[in-house]
């Protein structure tokens, strides 16, 4: 039975559907930081590890042109297919060797991506392509809180159960070294070696999320993908069943007998973000 989760599955499509976009307020904070010392035109931004473009489109509201760059051909193919913006381009490429002229970029962003990179090389390459006063902004999120609007007294139980599923048990051992080193620690071990380095932990993303969405998002996590590769579809499906059944058990008293469609059981998902900022010397 567990296999049914993966019948029509395509990882990059799940990604496109369930991964969160960057909060507008966070991107505005990045733009304000850039404008503190850069007064020229906002010609070009690049979004590194763009995936299917969750962050790229938000940045595109501020720039003449934004290029989303990702090393995965599947991610780029899906991003290109869905792109309807005339000032957004997607390119296959590696963060550590960008196909861009020196000093041509005012902003480099990387959402939920920098932990996968060769950081010293990426920072060096960033310095090469940024214009003087140009900014690098890297940000991510980790564990979301799912609040249950029908009875907030159950939020603590949901949080405890969800964190146990993510961090302990079967999935716990499948988080890779970069995730443990950088995401578990909220990028506290990363410092961008440019001017005015600072961090800001005040932003969070909020969205309505169905139980189907919670299960879909789980399938996009690299730890989940590793578990599925190592143990197979059945073990991966069992984990999703445990998540689904555990959550349903907590909220069961609030559901009417005819409420069985997981697409229509909604939570408020809240995801704290961590943001690092620095600029190339003016
Ligand atoms: C967790 S996803 C984040 C995607 C998107 N930015 C988001 O916020 O959902 C990380 C992305 O980084 C990409 N990536 C990993 N190593 C990379 C590299 N060296 N250069 C460019 N992209 C890379 C992966 O292919 C993947 O799409």
Automatic annotation (TrEMBL):
<dbReference type="InterPro" id="IPR051052">
    <property type="entry name" value="Diverse_substrate_MTase"/>
</dbReference>
<feature type="domain" description="Methyltransferase type 11">
    <location>
        <begin position="46"/>
        <end position="137"/>
    </location>
</feature>
<comment type="similarity">
    <text>Belongs to the methyltransferase superfamily.</text>
</comment>
<dbReference type="InterPro" id="IPR013216">
    <property type="entry name" value="Methyltransf_11"/>
</dbReference>
<keyword id="KW-0489">Methyltransferase</keyword>
<dbReference type="Pfam" id="PF08241">
    <property type="entry name" value="Methyltransf_11"/>
</dbReference>
<keyword id="KW-0808">Transferase</keyword>
<protein>
    <recommendedName>
        <fullName>Methyltransferase type 11 domain-containing protein</fullName>
    </recommendedName>
</protein>
<dbReference type="GO" id="GO:0032259">
    <property type="term" value="P:methylation"/>
</dbReference>
<dbReference type="GO" id="GO:0008757">
    <property type="term" value="F:S-adenosylmethionine-dependent methyltransferase activity"/>
</dbReference>
